[in-house]
């Protein structure tokens, strides 16, 4: 069946329908990863977005549910150049086509994803529609596209209740803003007992558990939409508990401390982004997925200083807080399938909490 991707600037791409056949409006973003498409699909940070994969062949090693980063996929739509319908992998349990149908996610295959990516790089991220309606009226669709916003998506992706991943070491409170599974696993592998809290949990409840450390996770959407969460993070900031934050958690901590954030032109999404440690000068290859960034021009150096920068565009990739046992990063040290260059940051967090014992 034919499918169409209609962008708010009037561009129309024609291809083949994959997955669900429902019509969807979403923010269109691109990801440059060559592997890890299941991890992309199950990353809660993509809620409210449709993802274009720049790598030309997707699905060749099938679906292995064990590799999922959450219980379900979160993107509104999926866009690929070529979809492999006959995966070859001894671990494969399903095809992407069936996976998308199972979770009612529409997609489009057979379009020029390189051309689409160039449009998004030159004009910036924009909204679009995936539809199988061949009689679409573009003059009626474009106003709807321009009105779309992702809204308050953190509440959509967070867990519904508190849960515990048992361990015999340090007690870590993980605030689930849309957390990938491997964050809790990375802590648990280091012996930590991880208590996962819903995003709207109060600081008082988190601190009442007497955690040795607090982890603020990744998540979707505009950080400035999370007003009530920022209020609670301010209270956590003023506690003496060591805090490590990733991605959205990094942005929310910055906002809680008085800094600012702004939307990027097309964001960083992929597994090949170089970041530089400003203390050592060493460069790490990182996995990233974000469309907003902390504005260091509005950062009070008496509160926090940049710890990492993006080598490609010089944007902020991490902060170290003055007089506080707090550090935050924009990238993903828990990256799965990788790269895992910066996994040592979890060891640094362990040291902040007093070591592995």
TrEMBL record:
Q: Note down the stretches annotated as region CPSase.
A: 1-170
The residues that hold L-glutamine are: 45, 219, 221, 248, 251, 289, 291-292
Q: Name its pathway.
A: Pyrimidine metabolism; UMP biosynthesis via de novo pathway; (S)-dihydroorotate from bicarbonate: step 1/3; Amino-acid biosynthesis; L-arginine biosynthesis; carbamoyl phosphate from bicarbonate: step 1/1
* Top EC category: ligase
Matching Pfam families? CPSase_sm_chain, GATase
How is the subunit organization of this protein annotated in UniProt?
Composed of two chains; the small (or glutamine) chain promotes the hydrolysis of glutamine to ammonia, which is used by the large (or ammonia) chain to synthesize carbamoyl phosphate. Tetramer of heterodimers (alpha,beta)4.
* HAMAP family xrefs: CPSase_S_chain
Under PANTHER family, the record lists: CARBAMOYL-PHOSPHATE SYNTHASE SMALL CHAIN, MULTIFUNCTIONAL TRYPTOPHAN BIOSYNTHESIS PROTEIN-RELATED
| Similarity-based family | Belongs to the CarA family.
Q: What is this protein called?
A: Carbamoyl phosphate synthase small chain
Q: Which organism is it from?
A: Ruminococcus gauvreauii
